[in-house]
Amino acid sequence: MKISAQEEYGLRCLVQLASAGEGESLTLPQIAEREGISQSNAGKLMWLLSKAGFVNATRGTKGGYSLARPAEEILLSEVVKVLDDDEIEGHCNSYTGVMDSCVHTGDCGIRSVIVGLHEIVQNALSNVTLSQLVGTEKKVDERFHRIQGLSGGVASTER
Amino acid sequence: MKISAQEEYGLRCLVQLASAGEGESLTLPQIAEREGISQSNAGKLMWLLSKAGFVNATRGTKGGYSLARPAEEILLSEVVKVLDDDEIEGHCNSYTGVMDSCVHTGDCGIRSVIVGLHEIVQNALSNVTLSQLVGTEKKVDERFHRIQGLSGGVASTER
DNA sequence: TCAAATCTTTACTTTTCAGTCAAGATTACA
DNA sequence: TGTAATCTTGACTGAAAAGTAAAGATTTGA
Question: For A116-158, what is each residue's pLDDT tens digit?
Fold first, then answer.
């Protein structure tokens, strides 16, 4: 259960845009430099995010990327869904071992856990907006835990 | 944010052992057949689980694998941690882009989310034992949601 | 119109993850 | 003791993910 490179970097690029401020735009070279990734890589990520409607891209001199919606309205759950190819739908067709279809046809205790887990993660992420990731680590950390705490207290019960 | 093949199949193999009953053992060919995976693959997974102390392996005729601890005491969070190489510790050293270390040194809003997310998942999984995955899908599904519901209600608030 | 800056798209390379194979080691039992 | 059944281990192969490169398209402004 880990976050993919695409999810991590994609999210970070969006945070850069949100940090730049309402309506402000950043170019590919700027984004690449600020996140310490190659311009090619940033280009691919921004293209995905643009295709998904999170950012507007304008070409030419004075071009760049800007958020298509206010950072306050962009939920992390939406972002992750796009950057991760939303695989849960076809889960039972993807881990089939050597068979054509999953051996647990029709009755499968594992499936509940996999799907349930996915729900939990999506739910947690749907309580966080992009704008809440802007700021110092301390501030963000406090915000994040408070949000999760209010909506269930799961994150704060252990360790 | 997805589950890896190793996590999925490893968990499924453990559930098979748990289903076999207290103290009962299964051989590699049996496990492979029941989960629809190759014997080679099952061998590798069971080796991992054995090394991690979840199962006892005995060689020779009449050999096989059996749970090293009661299924009631094995938490999913432990299992996933082993099958997933427990990557969260070194997170900041793994997604460094083209740099030697993460550009967000010292102050990083993203880190809170990544670590926080990991906490949420681990926490959810630490509320489920292996024994609770044994049974029909309907039963397991009910159990799973009830457990998550009690410990925070996260899983049941949406859709 | 032309050149520079910028995003877009496809193809390619590299790296990581999954899965397989084969030889080896151990045990039970006749 | 010997054979069959079983787990163990490391090397190998194939597939998927990550990242790079290069040529193309669009816009601005002189």
Answer: 778 878 888 898 899 999 988 888 888 878 877 655 444 333 3
Cα distance between residue B154 and residue B82, in whole Å? 25
Of the partner residues A12, A121, A135, the one whose CB lies closest to the CB of residue B117 = A121
What is the chain A residue with the closest CA to B153?
A152
Under an 8 A CB cutoff, do A7 and B15 touch?
no
Among the partner-chain residues A9, A80, A154, the one whose CB lies closest to the CB of B120 is A154
In 3D space, the residue among B111, B99, B105, B112 whose CA is nearest the CA of residue A33 turns out to be B99
How many Å from the CA of B58 to C1' of C29?
16
- How far is CA A119 from its chain centroid? 15
For residue range A4-16, what is the model confidence (pLDDT) as tens digits? 999 999 999 999 9
Please tell me the number of Cα atoms within 13 Å of A58 on its side-chain side. 11
Q: Is the pLDDT of residue A62 over 80?
A: yes
Supply the pTM of this predicted model: 0.86
Query: Closest chain A residue to B114 measured between Cα atoms?
Result: A3
Q: Give strand ranges (E) for A49-121.
A: 55-58, 64-67
Residue-wise DSSP of A26-55: B-HHHHHHHHT--HHHHHHHHHHHHHTTSE
- Smallest CA–CA separation between B43 and chain A, in Å? 14
Which residues, in sequence order, are bridge partners of residue A26? A65
